[in-house]
Each structure stands twice: as structure tokens, then as C-alpha cells.
Amino acid sequence: MISLIKPFNRFEWMIAMRYLRSKRSDGGISSMTWISFIGISLAVFALIATLAVRTGFRTEFVGTILGANAHASIYNSSYVNADGVITSGFTNYDQTKINLENIDGIISVLPVVKGQVMASANGRNQGVEVIGQTLIDIKKLPLIMVPELSFGSIDSFGKGIAVGSGIARSLGLKVGDILTLVSPDGVKTAFGTSPRISGFEVVYIFQVGRYDIDNTRIYMPLDDAQIYFNREGRIDEFEIIVNEPERIDNFKIPLLSSMPSSALIWTWRDANGGFLNALQMEDNIMFIILSILVLIATMNIVSGLIMLVKNKNHDIGILRTMGLTEGSVLRIFFICGAFTGIIGTFLALGLGCTFVIYLDPIFNFINFISGGGVWTAEKYLLSNLPAELRMQDVLKACSLSLGLTFIITYFPARRAARLNPVAALRYD
Fold this sequence. Notes:
The chain is α+β, with helices and mostly antiparallel strands. The chain is built from 15 helices and 14 strands. The longest helix has 44 residues, at 268-311.
């Protein structure tokens, strides 16, 4: 009689490994084991790679937002001034800027003037948004300052305006051209308000890679914008840059506490919340679909394990008559199934991490052998395919695979353990 005390002892592992290595002619399932092994590896590999690429695209998208925009904007609701005129914006903004910059976590406070006008050049017209900022402040937006994608010199900003690449393309503009801006809110006369028509030299053309910026945005020196939009002595908004953009909601109360009660705040999450929610929903759906693939792969283990139990009925009967308990038999067959899932998961972990790390060379090779067109940096405005390998994504994929493996393997292993040894020997 064999007395086994410790679970998962050497004897149980020896029998389990012998069953895994045995050939079909000996009642083994080596071919089914390989199929299960490969299936789990490919499924988990696809899950890790997909999660990494999705995370990379989200990071790239958020980086584009934060690189070309402030993290939050503080504006004032309309109010009646001392002269009884309905107005908006902020006066005495220099002192307010200092107060906001003293808040912990605030990197920069950018006073801006905004307005929508009609841009005209070369017989073409287009509606644009004009943002008035100082040269120092515009340099704090990193994606506006990318020299590889820009034309002209931003240092000449005080002498002219900066135009998005989409506007320049639509209106046929180049550096040095004159762009005419027409504002309906112009000079106030006894006969009403006449449109303001002014020409500005294009000194800088920038490209961010987002349609809503490149095709709509023009930057104008703050002093010129105040005159052009009748904002002498005041600004429309304060744009805020913080040290932790992902925690922008935590800055709302401190910022509003330093402002008048009529002030309101609009963050980058508020502006892009719909798109971010859509990305999150897509990520969740993609995870569910790939989880189903992992489940299907683990079901192969069940098929192989059921075949193994059926082929090893006689062996189970002998082991039980030798003194093995139901628990020992259960653990033996549990090891047979779980071992395949564990090895397949760790192989997928290595393949997935390697794939993500060397994603660009792999896609360049695929692009080369296919004759191009698979990935074109100019088309997608990305120098490389974004992918970000996060520990939580890796742990999520591995935990899913191992969890499903352990759960599914338990049931055929329990069936083997509950097999009547007398019936098993009689069956043989």
C-alpha cells in the first residue's frame, strides 16, 4: 500500500508527467496535448498583443490632446459690468494668473483670447478659430512646436500668425503669405457694428495630426487678438497646464476656489469624454471577444483530459487498489490538464512581450515583403505603430488563461477521481 500524505507530491507529479509524455498507442494523448498547448499559446498571445496595441493607441490619442491643448480652461459666464453692459471674460488677469500659479500642481497658466472668424486667401474662404496667446505660452504646447512637421519659425510669431496645416492646404497658403481674417464683431459705429477685416502674415505652419486642430486653428499674438476682438484690457479664458493630467478632476475645486463665483471650468476629459468612453467600450468588447478565444482554447484541454481519463480507466483502478485516495487521483489528472495551460500561458507571455517590444521591426518586415501599404507613417500621421506593454494588461491576460485552465480542468479530474476502481478493472 502506498501512503501519500502531502498533496502534489513527487509520486503524483511522476505519474502525471508520464501520462503527458505517453504516445497514443500507449493510451496517451500527446497529439491532443500539443493542440491544446498551441491553442492556448496563440489565444493568450493575441490577447496580450491586442491589449498592448489598444493601450498604445489610447496613449497616443491622449498624448495628442495634451500636447496641443491645455489640460483645463477656466472661463467666466456672462455678467453685467459697472457700465451696465453684458460682458464676459476676466479683467486684472495678471494678478489672477499669479494666484492660480501658486496652486500646488499647476505648471502654467495661459491667458487667451478666442474668437471664430472667416479666413480668406487666394479666392477661398474657410471658417477658423483664432486663439490669442503670447509667444512664451504657445511654446508650452509641445505638439505645436514639432520642427519635423512645421514650416517657418515660431520665433517670428510676434510679427504674424501661426496657421494649422489643414487651413494652409485648403487656402493654398505658405509661409510669408497674407491671410485675411474677417470678424463680424468689428468696429462699433453710430450705425452699428461693422465687420473687421485685417490681413496677417503667415509666419508659421504647424501640424498636430488631428483634424479638429490642423483644419480649424490659428494662433495670433495676444496683444493683436485683444485689439482685433475688442478685448482691450481683458481675456476670455485661462488655460491651465498641470503636472498630472490624468488627475485633472482633482484640480477643479482648488482652481475654482481662486476664481470668482461666476467662473466655470472645462477639462480635457470633458471635451473628449465621449471619444474616451467609446475607446473604453471598444477595449472591453475586444477583451470579451479574445477571452472567448482563450476559453475555446482551454476547452481543448478538457477534450484531451476526458480522452486520457477514458484510456486510463484500468490504471486508475490499479492506483486506487494500491491505496491512492480520490484526492490523489484528482490531483494527478489536474496536473495533466493544468500543466498544459501553465506552459502555454508562459510561452504566450514570452511571445507577446517580444512581439510588442519589436513591433516596429516586425511591421516593417511585413510591409517590405508585401510591397508596402500595410503601414504608412505619412497616411496615419504616426512615425511608428503605438504599443504600450502594461503590467496590469499582462497580468489580466495571464490570470484569465490560468483561471479558466484551473476551473475547466477540475471537472474531468474529479470525474477520474470518483471512478469506481472495481468497475474500472471490470471494464478492462
